[in-house]
């Protein structure tokens, strides 16, 4: 009984590396998309109990920032005169709430906050005007 001779590959045959390179690039892409490179930081915040929160609504300095301008205690205030107008009131360290109307740009908010900081404000909060109604 004669067995067939095994066929040997010719010496010139090469193994293609293209599928291997494709798999490596797919794995690289997968790990790049699923990895997070940013260090996410959080800040611990301790909130007081509801019963221990003092009523500070009388001590608030409230500014209304609308598309027409700035209003303080019902009076229109020019942006240039904001520091001089608020300095006496902010000397006691009262917190400031800026009530921002819809349509007011970020630049206007930042300029008012800069003026408040120059006037001596220590605590500034932003509030949307339509959230009050």
Helix- and strand-based class?
A: alpha/beta
The top level CATH class name of the domain at 58-131: Alpha Beta
Let me know the average pLDDT.
80
Q: Report, as a whole number of angstroms, the end-to-end distance.
A: 101 Å
Low-confidence stretches: none
| Strand order in the sheet with the most strands | 3-2-1-4-5
- Main sheet overview: 5 strands, mixed
Task: Give the radius of gyration.
Answer: 34 Å
Query: In sequence order, what are the helices and strands, one letter per element?
Result: HEEEHEHE
Shape: rod-shaped
Number of helices: 3
> Which fold name is given in CATH as the topology of the domain at 58-131?
Nucleotidyltransferase, domain 5
What is the CATH architecture annotation of the domain at 58-131?
2-Layer Sandwich
- Strand segment count: 5
Q: What amount of the residues lies in strands?
A: 15-25%
Helix content: 25-40%
Task: Tell me what you see in this structure.
The chain is an alpha/beta fold and 133 residues long. The protein has a domain at 58-131: Nucleotidyltransferase, domain 5 (2-Layer Sandwich), CATH 3.30.420.270. Helix content is 30%, strand content 16%. The protein has three helices and five strands. A five-stranded mixed sheet has the order 3-2-1-4-5, with helices on one face. Helix 2 (82-90) packs across helix 3. The chain is rod-shaped and about 115 Å long. The protein starts with 17 loop residues before the first helix and ends in a 5-residue tail after the last strand. Its main location: membrane. This is Biopolymertransporter ExbD/TolR. It is a single-pass membrane protein; Single-pass type II membrane protein. Keywords: Cell membrane, Membrane, Protein transport, Transmembrane, Transmembrane helix, Transport.
